[in-house]
Amino acid sequence: MSTKLPDWLTTSTPLPTGHQQRHFLAQNMQRLERLLQRFSQANDLARPPLKHFIAPQHKLLAVLGVILLLSLNQNILLLWLLLLGDLVILLLLPPIYLRQVLRQTAVTGAFAILLILPSLLLNANVALFAAKTLLILLNLNYYRTTTTFNQVITALQQLHCPNSVIFVVDITLIYLKMLGEFLLQLLQAVSLRTVGKSKHPYQMIGLLFGTLYLKTRDYALDLYAAMEARGFIGVYPAAPRTRQRDQLYLLLEVTVFCFLFLLGR
Amino acid sequence: MITLDQLTYAYPSGLGLDKINLQIKRGEFVCFMGPNGCGKSTLFNILSGLKVASSGTYAFQQTTIDATYLKNAQQRQRLHQQIGVVFQNSDTQLFNLTVADEVAFGLRQLPLAEAEIERRVNDCLVLTGCRQLRERVPYHLSGGEKKRVALASVLALNPDVLILDEPLNGLTPAAQHEILALLTTLQQAGKTILIASHDYLQIKTSAHRFVVFNEQHQIAYDIDRTSLATKPELQKELALL
């Protein structure tokens, strides 16, 4: 190792002129940052933590039940009742969560309507279908906004999902954020050393994804080895016992589901 | 050269930097210290143009660096050429198939002849002690080797300011000494060196100025080496950071 500096390092370096770099790097970095913020939904001071009165598995069952009811029934009254129930639940949400649920429903709803637009043009009666789709999206967005990833895993455990399924979901949720962060830093590194026009811009994409693939593989092997070293044999610990309140809620849930199902027949 | 005026950065999870006022002159060797999560890396991201301050101003060579400035691709590229950054995690900084390609990545975008690029790549590899790694795959290098290759690839662009986030982590004491000697030589040649480190004892003879952050993301001390020598209590505090 030498500490005698070459002459070029003590004079200024010429820069390319007249070249406008495409913004795709900067845009992708911004999008990825926003996505990562969503994944780290905890620790967001702007969003006060929700009080979870309902066990995660019952919340999941409720959402699945509503989707089932909406899919199987054609009764308008049922739609109104479910909408009324949804609106009551939404009103209990803090404003920041409420805004997020409504915004997401508006965006996903608009996209869904766009997909059924050809049917509308053909004069088919799709109003009921559109209303049902919007209600399903509203319920899904409510669940997505008010449920953390840990709660999803707990819900799957409580519902006695196979360990292999929970393992895959768990690892995916952990790694999506981790690999997203890794990719973001790679993009930042490329951006910091992009001082002109790249001769092979598409080769860069291959290099980035190659590095990401190698990292994914290494992370997965390291994580499994670390879990094995700590006694993991592919079985998740038993889920905590349900409370009396949860059992009462489940009873109420089943009763309402049966009532609405019979009403909609 | 660098002026920060009431610079604040807020993450969704809380403050990253709180009303930072700082002036750095050309050719200074400044060490940034402080507990984990105090804002050193956030400050480096703002200085390099990766993040934009939530409020306050950041000026580099009398030019305000803000969102409007960074939107212009040419201006952004100029800033990136003038300010080189070595990340805390060098793993994420290396993405080419060989060490030589890694160092040549930025140079190949400049109006330089292939022979000149080759000369600069060789010089950088020699300066950072990576000559023998030339044809190796960066991904498979050790942590210390990756750090040195990352430094070589940044040095190749001949930046005026070198930002190094914990560059001594993962290096042997001998390699740490060599890197600090190189940074001192670069500083003597007129480069501005900004370094984040937890190792006060290792860095105390190289850095001229110490900027210490507290847990409230503010500057607790901004003190030069001579003044620090007269404050043994503060030295003890820094050694424990």
TrEMBL record, chain A:
Keyword flag Transmembrane: yes
Main location: membrane
Signal peptide: none
Residue stretches spanning the membrane: 77-98, 110-131, 248-264
Membrane topology: Multi-pass membrane protein
Source organism: Loigolactobacillus jiayinensis
Location in the cell: Membrane
Name of the protein this chain belongs to: Energy-coupling factor transporter transmembrane component T
Tree of life domain: Bacteria
Keywords of the record: Cell membrane, Membrane, Transmembrane, Transmembrane helix
InterPro entries to which the protein is assigned, alphabetical: ABC/ECF_trnsptr_transmembrane, ECF_transporter_component
Pfam families: CbiQ
TrEMBL record, chain B:
Major site of localization recorded for this protein: membrane
Parts forming coiled coils: none
Mode of membrane association: Peripheral membrane protein
Superkingdom assignment: Bacteria
Cellular location(s): Cell membrane
Start and end residues of each ABC transporter domain: 2-240
GO molecular function: ATP binding
Keywords, sorted A to Z: ATP-binding, Cell membrane, Membrane, Nucleotide-binding, Translocase, Transport
Family under the similarity heading: Belongs to the ABC transporter superfamily.
Protein name in UniProt: Energy-coupling factor ABC transporter ATP-binding protein
